[in-house]
C-alpha cells in the first residue's frame, strides 16, 4: 500500500486509540481524531481491511436509537505491527517532516 499523509495520520490515530480501554473505533470518531475527511478516510479503511490490518463489525441496532447502526473498526495484530512500521518509516522520511508534531 502506498504510504500517504492520510495513511500515516489514520495509522497514528488508530494506534493511539488502540491503547485506550475500548480499542474499537467508529469512522466519525476516527475522522475527528486523525483530521482526515470522510471521503478519504473510508476508502483508506477499506484498503486497510483488504491488507488484513483491520476487522470491522456493525453495532447491534438498539431500540430507541434514532440513528443508523455504527460500523466499528478494530486493529488486528498484523495491523498493529504493519502500521507501527509505516509510522516508524514515515518519521524518518523528509516528506513527512511537516507532520512532526503528530509523531510526538
Automatic annotation (TrEMBL):
This is Helix-turn-helix transcriptional regulator. It comes from the Bacteria. SUPFAM superfamilies: Winged helix' DNA-binding domain. Gene3D superfamilies: Winged helix-like DNA-binding domain superfamily/Winged helix DNA-binding domain. InterPro entries: Metal_resp_DNA-bind_regulator, Tscrpt_reg_PadR_N, WH-like_DNA-bd_sf, WH_DNA-bd_sf. Residues 36-83 form the Transcription regulator PadR N-terminal domain.
Amino acid at each position: 500500500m502506498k504510504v500517504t499523509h492520510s495513511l500515516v495520520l489514520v495509522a497514528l490515530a488508530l494506534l493511539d486509540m488502540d491503547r485506550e480501554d475500548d480499542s474499537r473505533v467508529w469512522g466519525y470518531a476516527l475522522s475527528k481524531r486523525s483530521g482526515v475527511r470522510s471521503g478519504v478516510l473510508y476508502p483508506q479503511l477499506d484498503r486497510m481491511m483488504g491488507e488484513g490490518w483491520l476487522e470491522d463489525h456493525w453495532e447491534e441496532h438498539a431500540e430507541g436509537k434514532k440513528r443508523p447502526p455504527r460500523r466499528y473498526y478494530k486493529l488486528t495484530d498484523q495491523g498493529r505491527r504493519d502500521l507501527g512500521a509505516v509510522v516508524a518509516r514515515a518519521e524518518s522520511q523528509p516528506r513527512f517532516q511537516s507532520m512532526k508534531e503528530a509523531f510526538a
